[in-house]
Amino acid sequence: MRQPDRLKLDGDALCAGDVCARQGAPGVEGIRTSAFAWLLLSLAVLLLDQATKLWAVTVLPHNVDVAVVEGWWNWSRSYNSGAAFGLLGGAGGWQRPALTALALGVCAFLVYSLRRLPRRSWRLAVPYALVIGGALGNAADRLIRGQVVDFIQWYWRDFFWPTFNVADMAIVIGAVAIAANGLMRPKSSQGQSF
């Protein structure tokens, strides 16, 4: 009588005999990812973002530059009713629910993707968690205040980078890391889904 094949873990694959399936792929049961731990990172980003925005709203004067590093960095509280860099800021109000829905949709997709990642895929898990935390931070602002609080202003001479916040930093760092991960992925895995 033939013994059933035992399941074994081989790198990022679950194997039964000679057949292997990548962790997180549809049909691979019994392997849990550590999505919860990464969502704690998202929560930390969200809390840090909201705490710094609360500080900015209660301490910083509106539209007044407070030098942090002369010639390079100011605190400067402003409000953004649009998207990144103030895009859609004067669009008449429809952008608030649209941008909030977009942020929540992106978060839902990334949480779904995060749950499907193999346990050791921190190179994607960390950026996903950063984007989730940042998107939730700005969405919370839109829901609570009707606009996003920005307060970090970098500049050099007469060039001023658009004012931003902690959530924006998390989104940009996460998005760049996701893109870099996609560019550096081996060709053999580029056809695979998450």
TrEMBL record:
Belongs to the peptidase A8 family. Pfam families: Peptidase_A8. It is found in: Cell membrane. This protein specifically catalyzes the removal of signal peptides from prolipoproteins. The chain crosses the membrane at residues 94-114, 121-139, 159-184. Pathway: Protein modification; lipoprotein biosynthesis (signal peptide cleavage). It is a multi-pass membrane protein. The active site is at 150, 168. Its main location: membrane. The gene is lspA. The keyword Zinc does not apply. InterPro entries: Peptidase_A8. GO terms for molecular function: aspartic-type endopeptidase activity. GO terms for cellular component: plasma membrane. This is Lipoprotein signal peptidase. Its EC number is 3.4.23.36. The lineage of its organism: Bacteria, Pseudomonadati, Pseudomonadota, Gammaproteobacteria, Lysobacterales. GO terms for biological process: proteolysis. Keywords: Aspartyl protease, Cell membrane, Hydrolase, Lipoprotein, Membrane, Protease, Transmembrane, Transmembrane helix. It catalyses: Release of signal peptides from bacterial membrane prolipoproteins. Hydrolyzes -Xaa-Yaa-Zaa-|-(S,diacylglyceryl)Cys-, in which Xaa is hydrophobic (preferably Leu), and Yaa (Ala or Ser) and Zaa (Gly or Ala) have small, neutral side chains. Coiled coil: none annotated.
